[in-house]
């Protein structure tokens, strides 16, 4: 597989880019934010995603989707990142779909059509503490009659406040810190005993804190095997991580572009600031970092799509590398914009905020660098 | 007992008697009393403390008594600072008049100006703001455009300032204006005028932190009495440079020596052990730099006090201190994880943490960007050619 | 079976029959056979392998047969590379003639020059060196001073080169000389001449690694036949630029995609677990970058192959790859601790590790400094003004 | 104590600087190296140190020294670093003296006069593996008659091949990894069963690998208390670390100075390279780092001199910070010297080599950053 987009993929990019730039540019985010929109994204836009076939990008053809892969999902996510378009695409169409793809026909039939149609919003509930440590999953799922009762807390559940469906990692056996004994559940909106608090984050997106107070689910809510949820959880998270990396690439690319443009317009000391060599070298270094991150992300997506055994390593590399590159992009962006970059009027600050949330989502650069070390045996 | 020792004893006793316990708790920058026509006290204790200090001239302890100051010697002023720090006393008055305009007036003002303006500052009667930056001239003050035309009996000021801190709350402004368009630095003057003058308007700037501490400030045919100029006409650059140097010194001497330098220590207290090994390592490397910088701050102050500091050293302190602080807050956000992303919740105290993080990004821009400071070091300390 | 598949099968069989096992072990850069008049084989296997490959023109598999090459299509050449890699076959011949001069001659040489020089290169008969840098012109080739005066029937060359790799071992040199002092880049020509010519002398440069792979090379009234010029007079800059671009591509495509990208994995194999937590974290962060860069190398080669790479992208690869390698060797030294400091002991194989570390410092200088590469990116990719 | 040199200290600097610049400049190191000198330093020079009163800088007046402190020792070491002067000053006059100062009168009388006179060279034998981990001390010292028998290996013993006296950390109780059970011994040159191999290092200095094959010492060879050697070992090491930091400051300062000079002389593209803004900013950043390292080192020395409880923390900060700053200085130095910096003819490479050895000596930056974390409770 060559490391550039195929013709079909380039076409998808040519479609997704203008679509998001027109329908959900940064102005769209500002409108949602300034009107204090309680959903955090536009349901109309989500419907449009469906009409364009984007919601089902990872859904197999037999389940009504387009049966494409992570490269294609990444193309959409990069444009989402570039435009800061608020959307449940990453959690619903990428992470949740990846989990549901591994479920039995019954569950696939129950949820996938809704996602493909743009009716269903799905959320991922994994984190329980302030840092991402899935192996520490402690939320208990205890057998109860034909099903389970879930007790515990989750946080940082993007779109959880409006999600129709929440994929929940719970512990059916073993103790926090063990891979064995985790089970994935699909929990419907409004389940009794489930309280959800939507929390506005720095980037104006909304994530939920969830309290499960003996929430009853039946056996059919289990995704995959009881106690054997670690593998599907990892698959779901890796899909989310590669997706977050792609979105960060868009954030980084847009931040760099707007900064380089600014360098070509803004004068200081009688010269365009882009003429100053120190800034030129820093911009060139940033370009280099983003290019490398782009390659790492594409490689990770390709390995996921080919079910390669090394996909997990490359996903960790992509998340860590792109996180650092995008962090550099927004930091250099703010600094090179000078005082103007500190104002809400300029967009660069919005990119910095979004980057911080994406950096944290599904494990930050440090978490993934540590994974790279562990996967390499040290 | 030496004179100093007896001064220390008296001061300690007086502070213990006069500083209300509530004024011995740490306060945020914005919790402070800023004085001025619109000033109001957040609490009776704040008022009591301010008035007690102001009565002794101890809002400006080392200014001369004839200008409303405390008339303390440098050694006594240091003892007062030490004793206040010992008790944890808050500053009784936050004021750009004290920090910035005052020192400039003391150096460049006429006797009349000193007698007029300084006591108002000391007593917190007038709140000042600073009008330096302009939309087209951030780091590059020489390019400023705001015009002051000599109209015989007054200056006619037209133009626009930006980044005027709290201009919407200030009573008067000290302001750089162009009095000679044919020169660069040479054509600038340093004017003082009332923000209530006809033609002055302000517009707060919303920042990425969600706060609006700065304004855009507009001057539309503002008439300023001729005598409200500090220093000679077209010599405002000299005043401004002095003030910028003073500001840099102040920032570098105040901002970074205080507080807990070890971020890891602070975080471990808040969250317990730092479990992520890579984050822990990055915090440890930060703490090495932070503890080293604390030593540097101490050294710099000692050198400053004894006239041994290189005149450009404040640039180095400003550069290193602000870059370090930005890094610290990035790590603080990383350690806080998704908790630290909350923007409006009560749990997060309306997002104190992320807002402080975003606020820190201005550290390396305001008061001369990091790039400007590096250029100053290259030129004035390393003597590199063409810098 | 497709044509390619049968070529692959034949090639595999031939390699297995003809590549001696000893030539399937990794070798250091300096263990290789370099050919030339003074060339000698380190072992009978090395000779056998070289001769077998040279007989097929496979020292330069994709050069045309009429110039001594293998005449393989790009696809076949790739298959040969893959099959050699599969068996771990060493390169049969290291040669600046193959890597650098050959491509330039193929593009700019006359038919006569190609027929004369290329087969000599392919057969390893003549060892070439490169004369670009001068003491006053490292990154700045436009400033070069070595003169070639037109003496009617010959060029008279005077001047000095530096960083001539293995000039003391080379037979001929390809050399940039100034033929018109009134121009800058425009006044440079690309000459070829025999290092045995009267007036040529060389002096090895001792490096910080303790090795001397480079020389200073002096030209004192060296007479060069008129026809030994590549491209037109005063057009040498075009040839040189092409060659530099080619070199950068070669460095970026060869040097960094190979080997174990995870330093931590390599070190853990050698030393066991990395116990120092800060060092481990820094190695992990390096490995993120190294694994990402490996993906980048792969992407770059794919883009190059399909004509999709930005013309300035090799600068980015060169910059990022060399900086990464320097960092890797710093960490390698840190992990090696005091063992890695030994310089002459048998235990350390005469200090292979510290010498490789010191050698790496040249990575970001030779072939265009990192600063030059960043400038190229700024100018040609980011289109920044005045870059 | 103000954070600048007192008048007396400034006088010491004014003496030590010219002395070393004249008697042991870089040329002196080159001579020793090129003649493959087997000692690795000049014994004459060491005698001159003594004549100038430098060998006894840390030796109390009652033991015949000048009774000064670590600030003063650091002044000498910075000049040593600046001139790359090979000398056993750090191991003998700083580290060993610090250990011996805590010994009983008998041992002080046995060794200190020789060090003060410049007759005795002392070495420090702590490291047993390639990285500095003193708590892992495993070399065994077993009771035997009136004394002990030492068995095990040591490495990276600077000047150990010619040392008259070696301070050895050995384990009399407990296991590697424990602070309790370590004992310090003073072992004389030529002890039976002691084999010493001098190894030339990258910076042309010579360090020893030592094999103790049941080396017998009597009870009088113990420094301090049996099993209680951890505290004096730490004091000795901290003295060495602060000293190494001071020497690195000299290395860094000289590397920066010669690089800044080069920037003012070397032309490229028709301009002095020092005019290029990217290099100016990097040089200014380097200046800033070195200044901060200088402050940290001075603070550590002052805290050592006042026996402050926080001295260990500040020593770790100083060693780590100065190590990083000096590393940056030599790396930027080489890069900014371009090709010339790669030649043996230029001095900058010698500074890089020395810096690498000093970085490793008594624990590298990573080791000390980790200590800073531990001492701060995380």
Task: Describe the structure in brief.
The complex is a heterotetramer, with two copies of chain A (378 residues) and two copies of chain B (387 residues). Chain A is built from eleven helices and ten strands.
Instruction: Provide the helix percentage of chain B.
Output: 40-55%
* Mean pLDDT over the full residue set of chain A: 97
The strand count of chain B comes to 8
So, CATH architecture of the largest domain in chain B?
Answer: Up-down Bundle
Helix content of chain A: 40-55%
Q: What proportion strand of chain B? A: 5-15%
What top-tier CATH class of the largest domain in chain A fits best?
Mainly Alpha
Strand order of the largest sheet of chain B: 1-4-5-8
Distance between the termini of chain A: 30 Å
Radius of gyration of chain A: 21 Å
The general outline of chain A is globular
Described by its quaternary structure, the protein is heterotetramer
Biggest sheet details of chain A: 4 strands, mixed
The count of β-strands of chain A is 10
CATH architecture of the largest domain in chain A: Up-down Bundle
Overall number of structural domains of chain B: 3
Q: Mind summarizing the main beta sheet of chain B?
A: 4 strands, mixed
Family (chains B, C): Belongs to the acyl-CoA dehydrogenase family.
GO molecular function, one term (chains B, C): flavin adenine dinucleotide binding
Protein name (chains B, C): Acyl-CoA dehydrogenase
Pfam family, one (chains B, C): Acyl-CoA_dh_1
Task: Characterise this structure.
Chains B, C: Residues 234-382 form the Acyl-CoA dehydrogenase/oxidase C-terminal domain. Chains B, C: Residues 129-222 form the Acyl-CoA oxidase/dehydrogenase middle domain. Chains B, C: This is Acyl-CoA dehydrogenase. The complex is a heterotetramer, with 2 copies of chain A (378 residues) and 2 copies of chain B (387 residues). Chain A is an alpha+beta fold. Chain A folds into 3 domains: 7-121, Butyryl-Coa Dehydrogenase, subunit A, domain 1 (Orthogonal Bundle), CATH 1.10.540.10; 124-227, Beta Barrel (Butyryl-CoA Dehydrogenase, subunit A, domain 2), CATH 2.40.110; 231-376, Butyryl-CoA Dehydrogenase, subunit A, domain 3, CATH 1.20.140.10. Chain A has helices spanning 7-23, 26-34, 43-51, 70-83, 89-101, 105-117, 230-265, 277-305, 311-337, 348-360, 365-375, and strands at 122-125, 140-144, 147-158, 165-171, 182-188, 194-200, 206-218, 222-223, 267-268, 271-272. A 4-stranded mixed β-sheet of chain A has the order 1-4-5-8, covered by helices on one side. In chain A, strands 2-3-7-6 form a 4-stranded antiparallel β-sheet, with no helix packed on it. Chain A is globular. Chain B has 11 helices and 8 strands. In chain B, the strands form 2 sheets. Chain B has a 4-stranded mixed β-sheet. A 4-stranded antiparallel β-sheet of chain B has the order 2-3-7-6, with no helix packed on it. The longest helix of chain B is centred in the C-terminal third of the chain and has 29 residues, at 277-305. The radius of gyration of chain B is 22 Å and the shape is globular. The termini of chain B are far apart. The model of chain B has no long low-confidence stretch (mean pLDDT 92). The chains are: A alpha+beta (378), B alpha+beta (387).
